[in-house]
Amino acid sequence: MKYILSTIMLIHGAIHLMGFVKGFNLANIENLQSEIPKPAALLWLVVFLLFALSVIFYWLANNMWMLFAGVATLLSTIIIIGSWSDAKFGMIPNIIIAIAILFSFSSCAFNKKITSETQSILSTVDKSPNEITSENDIEHLPSPVRNWLAKSGAIGKEKVKTVWLSQNFLMKLKPEQENWHHATAQQYFTVNKPAFIWTVDMKMSPIIHIKGRDKFVDGKGEMQMKWNSIINLGKETGEKMDEGTLQRYLGEMVWFPSAVLSPYVTWEEIDSLTAKATMTYQGTTGSGTFYFNQQGDFVKFSALRYKGNAPDAKRYEWVIDVDDYADFDGVRIPSKCRATWKLEEDDWTWCKIEITEIKYNNLIKN
To answer: What average pLDDT does the chain have?
Structure first.
């Protein structure tokens, strides 16, 4: 798409040179029958230069390209109206470019909103000196959780306050879908005041681009999805969403193990390999069960979670299974996982997740 739009702007801009050449009698342009005064010819030249600048800034990933392209498209439209019989087909690339500007502007606005929300979450982080996770800290935890923390390497490491991670995703949006959609995502977490913000980019085709944002802040959850960053596909809030996003936070703590020491989480040992966690924060409560193997690794998380946010939405078992592990900053965490809904008609594995990078405590600014 980047190459296509760049080519359209370059060719469309270059065509405007014809008006400049004709207006100054530099060559005979048979395709232009109308007379073009020299002041108007200079305007044709300006449009060419603006489109050329648009392409340069577009490839530099500088949002100024939208300003240059917008002005160029407006001036080009004025020129075309004045020379309609000769230049009317020039409106086609103008419309294409205008649509691209609209999509890009909406995407920038959505990204700016996400950046603002992220900064707001990170601004609440406790900036006191980082403490080290010790054996004494985990004494009160159920034995399988203690064994897992020891196996993960979290003992002796700094307690995590902030997390940033990137993910590769394979997603199925419907149970009957056969092919997987590829997506990338990044996520920020805070621990002292539990919160996360997750953004995903999924290109379903060259012209269909889905961008979504989930967040959990102050005990409240929210999901928003947009098509090409401009058309809302859904925005969900409410008590069911609050509980579901809290359960998600609870299950995803396995990516930053020291978070299980949170005062908002209570633990109940079920057996030597299983423990139930309940989290209560800002009036929202949710729980889930953690499963471990004999070697001390976390292997599965299960929760009864609302599927959807409709008034009649029901709870179904929502399961995260671990497929592989990796070490990040000396901490062993699940690096590949699958998320599955246990539905009445069949199981629906809707996503496969791979952690590609993770950083702890490097988001704290003193």
So the answer is: 90
User: 50 with 83, same domain?
Assistant: yes
- The rounded Cα 257 to chain-centroid distance in angstroms is 23
Q: Contact at 8 Å (CB) between 223 and 239? A: no
282 Rama sector, left if φ>0, alpha if ψ -120 to 50, beta otherwise: left
Q: What is the mean pLDDT of residues 356-366?
A: 79
Contact 157, 331 (CB under 8 A): yes
Q: Of 289, 331, 297, 323, give the one whose Cα is nearest residue 147.
A: 297
Whichever domain contains 199, its CATH number is 2.50.20
pLDDT one-digit tens code per residue, 254-302: 999 999 999 999 999 999 999 999 999 999 999 999 999 999 999 999 9
Q: What is the pLDDT of residues 135-149, one digit of tens each?
A: 999 999 999 999 999
Per-residue pLDDT of 94-117, as tens digits, reads 999 998 898 888 888 888 889 999
Cα–Cα dist 256/276, whole Å: 18
Q: Are residues 260 and 203 in the same domain?
A: yes
**d(C-alpha 148, C-alpha 138), whole Å:** 11
Q: What is the spatial distance between Cα 363 and Cα 120, in angstroms, rounded to a whole number?
A: 12
| Structure tokens, 84 | 């309609």
Residue 94 inside a domain? The answer is yes
Is 273 within 8 Å of 183 (Cβ atoms)?
Answer: no
Whether 112 maps to a domain, the answer reads: no
Nearest to 158 by CA among 187, 191, 188: 191
Instruction: Judge contact between 9 and 54, C-beta under 8 A.
Output: yes
The one-letter amino acid code at 85 reads: S
Q: How many CB atoms lie within 10 A of CB 276?
A: 16
Q: Which domain holds residue 245?
A: 124-360
